[in-house]
Amino acid sequence: MFYPEIPTRLARLSRNPLPKGVISSAQVDAVRLLTDPETFGGRAPSCFDTIVSHLIVDGRDLFILRKPLDHDGFKCATVEDRWNWCETQCMRGFSRLGAVSARPLPIVRREHRLCLGGPGSIRDWVLKITCESVIVEPGFITLRRAA
Fold first, then answer.
1. What digits encode the pLDDT tens for the residues 78-137?
2. SS3 of residue 42 by DSSP
3. On the chain, which terminus has fewer CB atoms closer than 10 Å, C or N?
4. Is the pLDDT confidence value at 26 over 80?
5. Dihedral of CA 107/114/142/48: which sign?
6. Per-residue confidence at 65, pLDDT binned at 50, 70, 90?
7. Cut 0.85: pTM above it
8. What percent of the chain has pLDDT above 70?
């Protein structure tokens, strides 16, 4: 099991509002896409804003969008930095933390709109973690390993 302590100031979002935390102007559209119920087949995802990431939970999936920061050795300032961070997390093996699979997923622009995955011009990267279940409780996100 994986028990990161997550601030719960954003338990549920209505359609397309942005979290109240600081969002880089470069990531406004990406956060809007990831918090839009239409992205997840009409289901409203839970969204959490931490110091270094936006965490979006939809059913069995957890999406981690790193904020563009470059501070004290932590570097995710560019799209390439966020790709490298996603790859590093996959190589570290989330399976020991209870996740079944982790993979980088591009946020792309195609036909004048942003989409999650598929062909198009890459605008950002998110880490998609899929497991048996993602449980959101006040202060915690728990990833349960598949049987």
1. 999 999 999 988 877 665 555 568 889 999 999 999 999 999 999 999 999 887 777 777
2. coil
3. C
4. no
5. positive
6. very high
7. no
8. 76
3-state DSSP assignment of residue 35:
helix
Query: 90-128: buried (b, 16+ CB within 10 Å) or exposed (e) per residue?
Result: eeeebeebbbeebebbbbbeeeeebbbeeeeeebbbbbb
Strand partners, 5: 140
Distances (CA, A) of 140 to 41, 114, 143: 25, 29, 10
Place of tokens 């979002």: 13
Round to whole Å and give the CA distance between 53 and 64. 6
- Supply the DSSP string of 73-119, one letter for each residue: TEE--SHHHHHHHHHHHHHH-GGGGT-SEEEEEEEEEETTEEEESSS
